[in-house]
Amino acid sequence: MTGSASERRPAGELEASVLAALWAAGRPQSAAQVRAAIPQPLARTTVATLLARLHEKGIIDRRPGGRSFVYFPVADAHGLAARRMHRELDQDGDRSVVLARFVEGLSVDDEAELRRLLEGDGQ
């Protein structure tokens, strides 16, 4: 790692790379496999820390595999976005106001799609 804080990549960017590697693999991966699949040259310990953080956040899960763990995402990108939306709703005491403001900001097309989904006309 470099000594300059300005050269450090944001944790979110690195977590996104790790998650993208897991999604692309389509099957559980070891930390070494994840490290080999991501474009950034990261230390083994950095990849292990990123995997541990994603696991603590509930974004990925793990199971024993060989002498360590193998990791896999608990949801696809769309499912992860939905989880973030639910988490935001859960953090506010007045869900109806949050939902109303969300709907107010929708485009006409998005509002029509939401209505279609709420009426049970598809997935």
Provide structural commentary.
With 123 residues, the protein is mostly helical. The chain has helices at residues 11-25, 31-37, 44-56, 77-91, 95-104, 108-118, and strands spanning 29-30, 60-65, 68-73. The N and C termini lie far apart (45 Å). Strands 1-3-2 form a three-stranded antiparallel β-sheet.
| Strand order in the sheet with the most strands | 1-3-2
Extract low-pLDDT stretches. Answer: 1-6
What does the average pLDDT come to?
88
Oligomer: single chain
Give the C-alpha Rg.
19 Å
Strand count, sense and barrel status of the largest sheet are: 3 strands, antiparallel
Indicate the percent of residues in helices.
55-70%
Task: Estimate what percentage of residues fall within beta strands.
Answer: 5-15%
Number of helices: 6
List how many beta strands DSSP finds: 3
Euclidean distance between termini CA atoms: 45 Å
Kindly name the structural category: mainly alpha
Approximate shape: elongated
One letter per element, helices H and strands E, the order comes to: HEHHEEHHH
